[in-house]
Design brief:
Elements (H helix, E strand, L loop, with lengths): L1 H8 L4 E2 L3 H12 L8 E6 L24 E7 L3 H10 L4 E4 L2 E5 L1 E2 L9
Antiparallel strand pairs: 1-6, 2-3, 3-5, 4-5
Length: about 120
C-alpha cells in the first residue's frame, strides 16, 4: 500500500474506482444470471507493461485484492447486459478492442473514452 500511495501522490496514477464501487461490481458479477457466462482478466499497476491475467470466471476469490488493479476487462454473453449493469452502478468503463474495461487507475497521458 505504501508503494501504491506514493505512486498516487507523485501523480503516476489517478484513482478511478473506490472500494465501494469494486464491491458493487463484484456483487453484481456474483449474482448475475448464469446464462451471462461472465469472465474477467486483470492488470495490476505493478505488472510488467504487457502482463495481465488469463481470463477467469471466479469472481468470489480471484478478484482480490482490488487495491492494485489498474484495469479489469469483462466479457459476458450479452454486452448490453454488462454495460447496463455498469451504468446502473455509475461505474465508469471504456471499450477497448470490443471488450469492456473497468478502470481502477489511469496513468498520465491520453485517457480512456469513458462510457
Amino acid at each position: 500500500m505504501k508503494r501504491l500511495t506514493g505512486m498516487i501522490k507523485r501523480g503516476e496514477l489517478y484513482p478511478i474506482l473506490n472500494n465501494t464501487k469494486w464491491a458493487e461490481l463484484r456483487s453484481e458479477m456474483l449474482t448475475a444470471p448464469r446464462e451471462q457466462a461472465r469472465r474477467f482478466r486483470a492488470r495490476s499497476v505493478f505488472a510488467a507493461p504487457d502482463f495481465y491475467t488469463n481470463w477467469d470466471g471466479e469472481f468470489y476469490y480471484h478478484i482480490h485484492p482490488v487495491a492494485d488493479i489498474e484495469w479489469l476487462e469483462l466479457k459476458s454473453t450479452s454486452q448490453e447486459w454488462l454495460r447496463k449493469t455498469l451504468r446502473g452502478h455509475n461505474i465508469p468503463y471504456s471499450v477497448e478492442d470490443g471488450v469492456v474495461r473497468v478502470w481502477g487507475y489511469t496513468r498520465p497521458g491520453p485517457q480512456p473514452e469513458w462510457q
